[in-house]
Amino acid sequence: MEVQLAVIGGGPGGYAAAFLAADLGMRVAIVDAEPRLGGVCLLRGCIPSKALLHAAKTMAEVEQLAEWGVSFGSPAIDLDVMRARKQKVVSTLTGGLAQLAKRRKVQVIRARAMFGDSQTLRLEAVGDSPLEDDRLRFEHCILASGSSPTKIPAVDLPTDRLMNSTTALELPDVPDSLLIVGGGYIGLEMGTVYAALGSRVSVVEMTDGLLPGVDRNLVKPLAKKLGADFEAIWLDTKVTAAADKGDAVEVTFQGETKQGTERFDRVLVAVGRRPNSSGLGLENTRVEIDANGFVQTDARQRTADEHILAIGDVAGEPMLAHKAAHQGKVAVAGLAGEPVEFAPLAIPAVVFTDPEIAWAGLTETQAKVEERTVELSQFPWAASGRAQAVGRTEGLTKWLVEPETGRLLGCGIVGHGAGELIGEAVVAIERGATVGDLAEAIHPHPTLGETLGAAAEVYLGRATDLYKPKRNR
Ligand code: FAD
């Protein structure tokens, strides 16, 4: 079998690339070991986690209505129905992808692929799906093999009480006590779900704060809320051992805020992800990988092998679905001869906790590391009519501004629905907008989106809802 473009991996990077290639007239095949398209994001990542978070957030909102004098009593949770609802969301979307592939005549092959050489994939059947041919020749191949959860040797036990994000999303039960190892976004999102369902959730994080790398003033309101919702948050603390005690996992801690052992019904390890770059036969090609296992590419996603490109999680940080999809489109447009490069000014990132945290472009943390001089302009949500109306005043919207030009370099938001607001900031930063542009654009009232315009007005000393006189500039 021979195609113009073979794509390894049917995740958001792989299918975005394959579909665009087909739209541009290429003969395309996607090879994935999974029976359904969608990759980690759709099958065991972004989408199932957000389906469960939706239930968790709605429960929290209903509880909050007590402040308005409306009470509903304790929720009755049917885990079977919840699992089925989540599966329905996933099935609808994977079914949609299968249809889209079919209509575009993209061939979907269920197999494990490895490179025989720079223009041949060896295919190995998976499950009971027979293979027409165990070789696939190609002009170009896009590697979109994604990533897998990192394990920690100290906590690697043969017990299903130990979970990773995939098994945690299956909702095996609602454990009375749950330890989450790792205070990154995946751990905190899953912790939010399990805490809403009734688990006593504890988090242990090796560094001195939750969400390492994220600006501290964005993390603060979330840390406060989680401090109330979770049983415990142990910072500066490591898990040094774990033992299967049959009816529980006994975990040993060593650190500033926790020492000794404690038993948990379940333990979720969420300490990061590593690129899927081994076992692919890359040694039979000229593709190069770095010390962390990421495939090295140029700005058009080309590897050191002229026939092979790489995108998404396997091609480097940040490991996010929308970055994977964007790189997929750049890779294909480049193959089609278009003058493209993957050189974004703003890749948005969202932590879908409650409150949410979202940022795009330059962050304060990054500016400090790079010793860049920036000006900061922030609007606290306590001054927003909408935030007051919905009882969510803990939020903050901030812009990072280039002092000489007023150009918007970065944006950070913490607050209810922050993930839905960051899109405007992405467009503004990508298009080189200034604080003046944002302040002059009429934002609808009363919305939380208004805080983006208001934060720009603060910079200019013209904010209506906040008294912040113009600084001398
Ligand atoms: P993947 O989606 O990982 O897909 C790779 C595919 O390649 C897989 O289907 C795999 O079966 C296949 N494959 C690998 N090797 C082979 C082989 N040798 N042969 C055949 N097939 C192979 N990102 C966000 O942007 N927003 C979120 O809210 C978000 N939430 C997440 C929540 C969780 C719990 C997790 C785990 C991840 C989340 N992510 C989120 C990250 C997101 O899922 C990934 O960034 C994204 O899926 C990467 O896409 P990809 O196309 O690079 O690869």
CATH topology of the largest domain: FAD/NAD(P)-binding domain
Q: Assign the CATH class of the largest domain.
A: Alpha Beta
How many strands, what sense, and barrel or not for the largest sheet?
A: 5 strands, mixed, barrel
Q: Note the overall shape.
A: globular
Number of distinct beta strands:
21
The protein's oligomeric status is single chain
Summarize the structure.
This protein is an alpha/beta fold.
Verbal overview:
By secondary structure, the protein is α/β, with parallel strands linked by helices. The protein has three domains: 2-148 and 274-335, FAD/NAD(P)-binding domain, CATH 3.50.50.60; 153-271, 3-Layer(bba) Sandwich (FAD/NAD(P)-binding domain); 349-460, FAD/NAD-linked reductase, C-terminal dimerisation domain (Enolase-like, domain 1). It contains 13 helices and 21 strands. The protein has helices at 12-23, 39-44, 46-64, 79-103, 165-169, 185-197, 216-229, 321-335, 364-369, 385-389, 418-430, 435-440, 450-460, and strands at 2-8, 28-32, 107-117, 120-125, 135-143, 147-149, 162-163, 177-181, 200-204, 232-234, 237-244, 249-255, 260-264, 266-269, 273-275, 308-310, 349-351, 356-361, 375-380, 396-401, 408-415. It has a five-stranded mixed barrel with strand order 1-2-3-4-5. Helix 6 (185-197) links the parallel strand 8 (177-181) and strand 9 (200-204). Helix 1 (12-23) runs parallel beside helix 8 (321-335) and helix 3 (46-64) crosses helix 4. The radius of gyration is 24 Å and the shape is globular. The model has no long low-confidence stretch (mean pLDDT 97). The structure holds flavin-adenine dinucleotide. Residues 8-14, 31-34, 39-41, 45-46, 49, 112-114, 144-147, 165, 186, 276, 280, 312-313, 319-322, 324, 352 line the site of flavin-adenine dinucleotide.
